[in-house]
Write a structure and sequence with these properties.
The protein has 312 residues and is of the alpha/beta class. The protein is 40% helix and 16% strand. The strands form two sheets. The chain has an eight-stranded parallel β-barrel, surrounded by seven helices.
Length: 312
């Protein structure tokens, strides 16, 4: 089936299923901002990426510089989340053991439950702007694999990427490659009740308009935006974040922001929290720490600050 015909078929199938009551959601959710009744509600989570230099199973290039006594695994990370008042833990896929199995995922789920921690989601690295072929198929298969893993762990959300335009390809061409890959993964995720959050992560989604165009084009009730507060390097990142906030299904909050032509500066966390409340966001806000200060010192302080802002 040709790409365009396949895309039309997937869209029609999804809308027909919704209309028949099989999906249990309103198809307009994918075309317009999410309509959430009630008051805004922000739940504190922490992204495992915050401790990327310290995970025992990390391939991060700076991992060898870490103090071996401070190396941790995902179980210990969940303990850290519990001890610092988080409701959730975002388990970045990069730090799972390379040869994990179903039993490992169940152990992790059990450990989180006993510590009173919800697995708020996971995050994968992928590129959906590759031409048709084995490499592209592998990217789609990788996301589907993590949808299965998220289902086992009880994680409701997966952060995914779009990608950048390969050399010699226009941004419009890259966008047209990304959309059907997203549609295929959303169809698979929706069948398991998992949301996919497309992150504003540069490449073909470097601006609010670009990421919104793609989310609206996919038209899946299981696709939203993974709002990263540091990833717009525009003249007014706060204004652009406000544009995509109504479409957020997960938020990764950073301690810094970098407007166009300027260096990194401290983020106005109070302003970001107000922005989420103004959008009536209801869901997880995960601290994803990337700044230079040691994570063991900075993360507890930032979590405390976020808790106070959420309660205010």
């Amino acid at each position: 089936m040709q790409t365009a015909n396949r895309r039309d078929f997937l869209r029609a199938s999804c809308l027909a299923a919704v209309g028949a009551g099989l999906c249990g959601v309103n198809p307009l959710l994918a075309l317009e901002p999410f309509k959430r009744s009630g008051a805004p509600r922000l739940s504190l989570s922490l992204a495992a990426y915050s401790f990327r230099d310290y995970f025992k199973d990390s391939n991060h290039k700076r991992d060898t510089e870490s103090d071996p006594a401070r190396r941790i695994d995902l179980f210990q990370f969940i303990d850290f989340c519990a001890e610092h008042g988080c409701q959730g833990a975002e388990l970045t896929s990069y730090y799972f053991p390379p040869h994990m199995d179903h039993t490992f995922l169940i152990r992790l789920k059990r450990h989180a439950f006993l510590r009173g921690i919800e697995i708020s989601g996971t995050a994968v690295g992928n590129t959906f702007t590759l031409p048709a072929g084995p490499d592209r198929d592998q990217e789609v298969a990788g996301v589907k694999k993590w949808i299965d893993y998220a289902t086992i762990m009880g994680a409701p959300h997966i952060r995914i990427f779009a990608g950048a335009a390969p050399s010699g390809m226009s941004r419009d061409q890259a966008r047209e490659l990304c959309i059907p890959a997203l549609e295929e993964c959303c169809e698979y995720a929706g069948g398991k009740g998992i949301f996919l959050g497309l992150e504003n992560h540069g490449g073909i989604v470097a601006t609010a308009e670009e990421i919104l165009d793609i989310v609206r084009a996919v038209k899946s009730p299981w696709l939203g935006i993974n709002l990263d507060t540091a990833n717009f390097h525009t003249d007014d990142p706060y204004a652009d974040l406000a544009k995509i906030a109504p479409y957020a299904v997960n938020v990764q909050m950073k301690s810094e922001i970098q407007p166009r032509g300027k260096g990194a500066e401290p983020a106005d966390l109070k302003r970001l929290v107000k922005m989420l409340r103004d959008a009536n966001y209801q869901g997880y806000v995960a601290l994803e720490y990337e700044s230079k200060e040691d994570a063991w010192t900075a993360v507890p302080r930032l979590l405390k600050q976020m808790k106070e802002l959420f309660a205010g």
